[in-house]
Amino acid sequence: MTSTERRGWQEGRRDTTSLAEILHVLRGRRLLVVGAVLVLAGVALLLGLFRGPAYTAEAVVGFAPEQVPDDENARQALAQEVFSAVTSPQDFSEVVRAKASWRGTPEVFRDRLDPGVSVSEDGGMEMRVAFFGREPGEAARVANAYAETFAARALRLDDGQLSGGAGLADARVMRRAVPSEGSGPPALLYAALAAGVGLLLGGGVALSLEGRTGGWRDVRDAEVTLKAPVLGAIPEYSAAENEG
Description:
Layout: H1 3-15, H2 19-28, H3 30-50, E1 55-65, H4 72-87, H5 90-99, H6 106-112, E2 113-119, E3 125-133, H7 136-155, E4 168-175, H8 187-213, H9 219-226, H10 238-243
Antiparallel strand pairs: 1-3, 1-4, 2-3
Helix pairs in contact: 3-8, 5-7
């Protein structure tokens, strides 16, 4: 086998790469490929496990004052006043947590809670509460507990607690929260996608390194490249060629 023939085969190898050659290269640099897959999949799995809550549940409470203001801004102010009067007492949050069997800290409870009031064009007032949980049942349970407690306490407001001296004529849960599907893919799916990216990345780096080295590492490498058995050892000509 002359150096000219060897260079010709190497040039052909660079131009056309078969599946067998690619698999052979990946096997030869399997530590690099496996390492890239494990690192990316592990990072994605951890991010998926420690990311924010994946489930959201929302409940709606409708309420109506005995005297509805004519001005839209006044109605919005009254709705906000009702909300503050009901939820401001310290024990309100405690009652909701106990009713929902919440086992976390009050700080986490507040962070995952998203209540608010709004006024419709026809003057209807409502309070919407959303809760973000790691489990669908937990999210729905807390949202419903909040809505039920709000409606019950809103009806007990004294006339003197609201501006104008008027209380509420009605307050009830209009829509209960139901367990919902997750807002994002599960952690295992993130890990699987990251593993695929790691395989492509590791394989690309392995092929790039193989292309830079040129030449055959051993008889097996030559057989895969030439697609034919090779008898004897393949001498390394690169050093002699460089010296010449």
